[in-house]
Request: fold
Amino acid sequence: QSPQIPNQPETPGDSTFTTTLTLEKANEILNILFFLPRSFEKVDAASEGLSNAQMGLGPDFCEVQLFVSDNPYQTIYCFLGLIESRIERATSDALLRDEIQMSNLIMESLKQGAQEEGVNLQNTKISITYPAIGILAMLGEGSFSVEGFTFGFDTLWFRAGNAYVFIYSIYYSQDRTTLIPIAKQIEQRLAGYFNTTSPVTRSH
Reply:
């Protein structure tokens, strides 16, 4: 049985909209440095192995935006993709609503990244919630241990119109910057690119 998602209509359907949004505009939309504490700085994603090409994202996704804080340690990176096909959007939305599938997908992604770095993850935990952002949003929060050190991670994906935004965070201290306020700021920026006959974001 599919999990019950708070604040979701029973049949969300798909919006009828026109958009001026292009991937070339994504860098400006995803520049979240203004919303982050002063300890953060913008870092070239390619220098850390996180570029579009290095992550294998493909032509439907923009370049990755990376932000790092040394003290307290936290890394946040984000990117967005544009999905024109309604069938592909429906498939993507169904995946976002599947709590078990999302948990498995996030954990497998973490393990794969750790293997590429030559480390083993232990004591992995994750919980999935559905915040009221965009048409549909999923937040995964959890933790893992590496060589006796425990790190936290947050993963927030949301959809606005035909744009899917992906935000990731890894942190060491509980004094972290949370992703929901950042996602809502990005959502507000995206809203200006859509002309709709039905909402591209939910009524919050």
Q: What stands out?
A: The radius of gyration is 17 Å.
